[in-house]
Amino acid sequence: QKFGYWPQHLTAVMMRTPEPNPARMPELLSELKKAEREEVIAAAAKLTHRISKGLDLTDEMRSVLAQRTGDVVLERRRGVLNGFAICMTGAGSEGGEKICYIKFGAARDGKAAETHFGRLLDGCEGYSALKGATVEAGTNLSRGEAFRHLRSRGYRVTTQGVAMQRPNLEGFNR
C-alpha cells in the first residue's frame, strides 16, 4: 500500500487438461496473412478499450508471435472479432512446455457474451490439446459469470491470488 496499491477481489488460477477434439480447432492469429492479422489486432484494441479505457494488448499480441512463445486464439464470426486470448506455451514461454497459460482473454459483451466466451474457451482448449498441454486460466472473482463458466467446464482452482489496484478504484477487474 505504500506504493498506492490496494487489495481488491480474489483471483482464482484454474487448470484443466482438455481432451483432443477436432470440433474445437482454434483460429490462430499466426495463421492469418499480415494485412488480416493487423485488422484483427486493431479490432482487439477496440474490444479491450470497451472493457477499460486505455487497455491495449496489441504489443503483447505481436510479441507472442515474434518470440514464438505461444499464439493468440481468436473467436470470430462473419468477420467480427468476438473474443481473443493470448496463450503462452512452449519452451521459453510463461506457460512452459506442459502448460498453456491464458495470459489474457476477453470476449465481447452483450446478449451473446456467454456464447462468445464459451467459443473462445473451446479455441483455447483446442490449441492446448494440439500442444499436449494443460490449460491454466485465471479469473478475477468479481467476474462471477466467467468463474462459474470455467467451473462448469471442469476447471479446478489451484491457486488464489489478490488483485491489487492503483489507485483504489474500480478497474478492469469489475
Molecular structure report:
This protein has helices at 34-51, 58-67, 113-131, 144-152, and strands spanning 6-16, 27-28, 70-77, 80-90, 96-107, 134-140, 156-165. A seven-stranded mixed sheet has the order 2-3-4-5-6-1-7, sandwiched between helices. With 174 residues, the chain is an alpha+beta fold. The protein has four helices and seven strands.
The percent range for strand residues is 35-45%
Q: How would you spell out the order of helices and strands?
A: EEHHEEEHEHE
Distance between the termini: 20 Å
Task: Specify the helix fraction band.
Answer: 25-40%
Number of strands: 7
User: How many separate helices?
Assistant: 4
Strand order of the largest sheet: 2-3-4-5-6-1-7
Low-confidence stretches: none
Largest sheet: 7 strands, mixed
Question: What Rg, in angstroms, do the CA atoms define?
Answer: 16 Å
> On the 0-100 scale, what is the average pLDDT?
93
Based on secondary structure, the structural category is alpha+beta
Give the CA-based shape: globular
Question: Secondary-structure map with pairings?
Answer:
Blueprint: E1 6-16, E2 27-28, H1 34-51, H2 58-67, E3 70-77, E4 80-90, E5 96-107, H3 113-131, E6 134-140, H4 144-152, E7 156-165
Parallel strand pairs: 5-6
Antiparallel strand pairs: 1-6, 1-7, 2-3, 3-4, 4-5
